[in-house]
Amino acid sequence: MATEFEIKNAKPQAKDYTISENGGLFVLIKSSGSKLWRFRYSFAGKRYLISLGKYPQISIKKAKSKHRQYLDLIDEDINPSTHKFSEKVKLATHKTFKEVALEWHDKKQQTGIYKHNKVLGRLNNYLFPKIGKLPIKQIEPPMLFNIMENIQEEGLIETGNRVNNCASMVFRYGVAKGYCTRDMTADYRGTLKTSINKHMPTLTDKEKIAELLKAISDYHGTKKVKYGLQIISYIFVRASELTNSKWGWIDFDKNQWIIPADFMKMKRDHLIPISGQVKELLLKLKPITGHSEYIFPNDNDSTRAMCPESLNKAIRKLNNGKYIGKMVTHGFRAMASTILNGHNFKSDVIEKQLAHQERNKVRGAYNRVEYLKERTEIMQWYGDYLDKLKSI
């Protein structure tokens, strides 16, 4: 019979070995130094092995108590392995939606095949505040439909559908794990609005652009969001590319901002020459968010990026909702393209700075610094141009 002293002082060897207790209970001493309680038994002519935990977290006393419970089950003609699984399922029925969603998200993130930052943003911004603390088995279809409907009533048709798809995937994972019985979103399938593909709204008239820029300068929300709107107007990247950016991607000495391929839609590194206007804004923002690796961190968790939708929400609030349906963050890209092409800058240079897909695949593999001199000139010209408009 193993003693506390014997187990405590057992040293790892080149190969794993065991210290037996009795009745199938033993400690497995791993070559790594770990000491693991195991119970080996036979039931209905088959051999089984159950893990009881790790020593010293599970003491001899606790291990023997668990062992005794399993022996009692065998005496009652109950397979301990089956019983253990059923107990896990019972505990799982009390898991909250947030617990299940994060478990699902962690597994999906490990695959590296989906945009986990955007998915986590949807969970944090739309689902966790409403149903995160509820046991997943208690969530009913009307609860979910109301969430999606409210999102779409704000004009975010596609966002509502994407959040709903996210919820559906969490429920399907829950079904597979035994946390819930079915995907609740199936009950209202086909009832949500669907968006029609169209060009993103933007502004091209000088006076209207000037008015928008002034409205952004007068924005009374957080400085982080205000600077975000100002910066994106100057560098015209996609909103997610901006909000996921990190301070480590900026070289203030070279006046360059490089967004890695993993965070770009076209999966290529994207270099942004930093104009004087953008550099000034970044230096103002540094004391505010420099504690985080993200230039635009999440308000509730600085280890995560701000949700890109925060910028669009801010635009919808400008001038008492004047820009609803008329301008979104993506519109800054169309605005820049229109202005730059209208002033006869080379289209290849403009397309490169917009990080658009190159039609010629061979040519599309060009270096990220191609046209760097011209692009640097364009970005400074564009910054100066917007400042002139703002002063109209």
Q: Report the structural category.
A: alpha+beta
Report mean pLDDT, rounded to a whole number.
88
N-to-C SSE string, H for helix and E for strand: HEEEEHHHHHHHHHEEEHHHHH
Give the tally of β-strands: 7
Spatial order of strands in the largest sheet: 1-2-3-4
Secondary-structure map with pairings?
Blueprint: H1 4-8, E1 17-20, E2 25-29, E3 35-43, E4 46-55, H2 60-75, H3 80-92, H4 97-111, H5 116-131, H6 141-153, H7 157-177, H8 206-217, H9 223-235, H10 239-243, E5 250-251, E6 256-259, E7 270-273, H11 276-289, H12 309-317, H13 331-342, H14 347-353, H15 372-390
Antiparallel strand pairs: 1-2, 2-3, 3-4, 5-6, 6-7
Architecture overview:
This protein has 392 residues and is of the alpha+beta class. The protein is 48% helix and 10% strand. The chain has helices at 4-8, 60-75, 80-92, 97-111, 116-131, 141-153, 157-177, 206-217, 223-235, 239-243, 276-289, 309-317, 331-342, 347-353, 372-390, and strands spanning 17-20, 25-29, 35-43, 46-55, 250-251, 256-259, 270-273. The strands form two sheets. It has a four-stranded antiparallel β-sheet, covered by helices on one side. Strands 5-6-7 form a three-stranded antiparallel β-sheet. A hairpin with a 4-residue loop joins strand 1 (17-20) and strand 2. Helix 4 (97-111) packs across helix 7 (157-177), helix 5 packs across helix 7 (157-177) and helix 9 packs antiparallel against helix 11. The radius of gyration is 29 Å and the shape is elongated. 30% of the residues are buried.
